């Protein structure tokens, strides 16, 4: 498998997710450079989660988040994170986090509520993982991107902190041969990740934003090289059911129940290789394919309404 040109893309990502403390319940961070100059939605989502996690009692981990991408962020500017302590109960804590730039908390680029819980016993059940070929039998996205002579492809090849392996045909070069709203893919970190459960959950939030809307594209015969295609994340909901490590293979079982009005909904259930259901995710995105079609470009979606 081709190695990325950046020596350690995961180390670069972890550095970007390291926040400075600016005051009580106020933090700041930087952004990874992205084509187009906008902040990647998954990055600010992960940073907001880490900021909120710094304010909760020890031993409480996030079990759900609900966030809206409200404005595009400038990757050249620092991002501030203000955390509101909404509630601390006997078992649960709730936090609202606003991410903003230019000292304007009244103009957030992300608004998110996260709920945290102490580990507790209780009854259990979960959906079973569907049959899927192991990641060792599938080709890496990095190998496919080698063959694309495009700045965004070179960026992903060099900078991506995750190894992606599609079970069905990928959407990098061409639309899927079958028009379906279902797909499965394996994902694993390309580098060392600290033994920190909060960081692993934040990295899962970061990574899923890269692929969660692909079923919408698959359902409508779109690819990452569809001329003029524009995609932007609008909101994100996530539930963590059990501990998960992003430095171990995770299977995303994805679908899209609906698309209309220039919006499409993507969903995912995330399993470990052993079949444990660790997370459920939903995200709605904006899709635009202008007429007449413009120049061919690779999609690099970011967060924020128009």
Automatic annotation (TrEMBL):
Keyword presence, Lipid metabolism: yes
The protein's assembly and partners: Homotetramer.
Organism per entry: Pengzhenrongella frigida
UniProt record similarity statement: Belongs to the C/M/P thioester hydrolase family.
Gene Ontology BP annotations: acyl-CoA metabolic process; fatty acid catabolic process
Family matches, as PANTHER family: ACYL-COA THIOESTERASE (PTHR11066), ACYL-COENZYME A THIOESTERASE 8 (PTHR11066:SF34)
Domain Acyl-CoA thioesterase-like C-terminal: 154-286
The keyword Protein biosynthesis is annotated on this UniProt entry: no
Signal sequence residues: none
Catalytic activity: a fatty acyl-CoA + H2O = a fatty acid + CoA + H(+)
Positions of the Acyl-CoA thioesterase-like N-terminal HotDog domain: 35-117
Source organism phylogeny: Bacteria, Bacillati, Actinomycetota, Actinomycetes, Micrococcales
Name the record gives this protein: Acyl-CoA thioesterase 2
A single MF term (Gene Ontology): fatty acyl-CoA hydrolase activity
Region (Disordered) location: 120-142
Pfam family, one: 4HBT_3
Coiled coil: none
Keywords in alphabetical order: Hydrolase, Lipid metabolism
